[in-house]
């Protein structure tokens, strides 16, 4: 090492002043690495399997709280003699809470940490989920389920946290696999309802549905904070401690040198989502999230409505399915639960299909394909088809829309930088909740007026979302996660070249 190099390095790193000669330690101090470099060196191992299971529990809980809505509505319609619009409100109020809270939890996760946002939101959901089982009257149930929805709005932050621990090659497949926990939760809720509802009733079902949340809350102390968040916050020591822990559990070694840290003081600003390089992506993704939730929860609610209607032939020929008395009802039968279970099992082949596509044709094309296939599977419902055919087409439609829903969970954290990734997930989730809020009034109210119009709404929305997926500016297949918006290059590529700004600095100091 030349004298000039030592002087220059002394200016950058005071540790060089302690070296009397160009020793190995001096050379080592000149080397740096990023979180991406560390995660690639560590790979996917024991630690990632553990965090997959733990964050997956939050998905199981989320799916169960969502799936219960298609079961709770018909039950309370009969037990409390509720008209259709009040039944729809039980579903919609949950999504109102989620829509309000999703950006809030995203902002919390960007400012105070992904772990903080996820833990608090899940504890909130557990508390009010249990309380809602004791709701004495309709008004209290509506209020408490709204608060449950407020907590569930933080569930997408589990994907934000999880994605930030994954190496590039594993990210797409792993996020899709964690989505399998959603499918498990949905199936488990139907099985739970089949066992609990006939003898114990809906209150016990609400209580038992909080068990995965309780398990998550008991073990969430193990969750580490995202090293990407710590790096962006300038907390190099904490990030290094987390990366060292992961490397130890996986039996790997970290790269030699110093971890590059950022100091991003302004994080979680919604205006950053509308920066020149992001505004088009933000708006298109908002519509895609809206359409995904609108179509997904629509087909879930349509399943029980169409099964209860019984005669699809009479429906498609113009007969209304609203009973003569608005308070007349039919309880879900064992046959209804079994058919609901079959259509819910569609989550698994949907995941399998998308799992094969997402790293082969890319995220954008996978989303577009899922929306188009969903629309094609809705078309046969315009005709007079029997219950078996109805179950088959709903099964296929749900497989594709659930698979597409998971692809957007892969794409969104990949396209936005760490400084506003959680907020992007939160605001996108809020748009999804808006779609889910509206869909009960289409699937449960509009359906009683016109089957054709109801199906047309879902077909049109999903086709437009397919076009929006195709128009997304960036394909994120094979891209590293960005730490800062300053890493966004023309054409959506990332760079490892250090950059400086007024409010963003990088450092390799201790």
Automatic annotation (TrEMBL):
<dbReference type="GO" id="GO:0016020">
    <property type="term" value="C:membrane"/>
</dbReference>
<keyword id="KW-0813">Transport</keyword>
<keyword id="KW-0812">Transmembrane</keyword>
<keyword id="KW-0472">Membrane</keyword>
<comment type="similarity">
    <text>Belongs to the major facilitator superfamily.</text>
</comment>
<keyword id="KW-1133">Transmembrane helix</keyword>
<dbReference type="Pfam" id="PF07690">
    <property type="entry name" value="MFS_1"/>
</dbReference>
<feature type="transmembrane region" description="Helical">
    <location>
        <begin position="173"/>
        <end position="196"/>
    </location>
</feature>
<dbReference type="InterPro" id="IPR011701">
    <property type="entry name" value="MFS"/>
</dbReference>
<feature type="transmembrane region" description="Helical">
    <location>
        <begin position="340"/>
        <end position="361"/>
    </location>
</feature>
<dbReference type="Pfam" id="PF00083">
    <property type="entry name" value="Sugar_tr"/>
</dbReference>
<feature type="transmembrane region" description="Helical">
    <location>
        <begin position="51"/>
        <end position="73"/>
    </location>
</feature>
<dbReference type="InterPro" id="IPR036259">
    <property type="entry name" value="MFS_trans_sf"/>
</dbReference>
<feature type="domain" description="Major facilitator superfamily (MFS) profile">
    <location>
        <begin position="51"/>
        <end position="477"/>
    </location>
</feature>
<feature type="transmembrane region" description="Helical">
    <location>
        <begin position="126"/>
        <end position="152"/>
    </location>
</feature>
<feature type="transmembrane region" description="Helical">
    <location>
        <begin position="283"/>
        <end position="302"/>
    </location>
</feature>
<feature type="transmembrane region" description="Helical">
    <location>
        <begin position="368"/>
        <end position="401"/>
    </location>
</feature>
<dbReference type="InterPro" id="IPR005828">
    <property type="entry name" value="MFS_sugar_transport-like"/>
</dbReference>
<dbReference type="GO" id="GO:0022857">
    <property type="term" value="F:transmembrane transporter activity"/>
</dbReference>
<feature type="transmembrane region" description="Helical">
    <location>
        <begin position="85"/>
        <end position="106"/>
    </location>
</feature>
<feature type="transmembrane region" description="Helical">
    <location>
        <begin position="421"/>
        <end position="443"/>
    </location>
</feature>
<protein>
    <submittedName>
        <fullName>Synaptic vesicle 2-related protein</fullName>
    </submittedName>
</protein>
<dbReference type="InterPro" id="IPR020846">
    <property type="entry name" value="MFS_dom"/>
</dbReference>
<feature type="transmembrane region" description="Helical">
    <location>
        <begin position="202"/>
        <end position="223"/>
    </location>
</feature>
<feature type="region of interest" description="Disordered">
    <location>
        <begin position="485"/>
        <end position="510"/>
    </location>
</feature>
<feature type="transmembrane region" description="Helical">
    <location>
        <begin position="450"/>
        <end position="472"/>
    </location>
</feature>
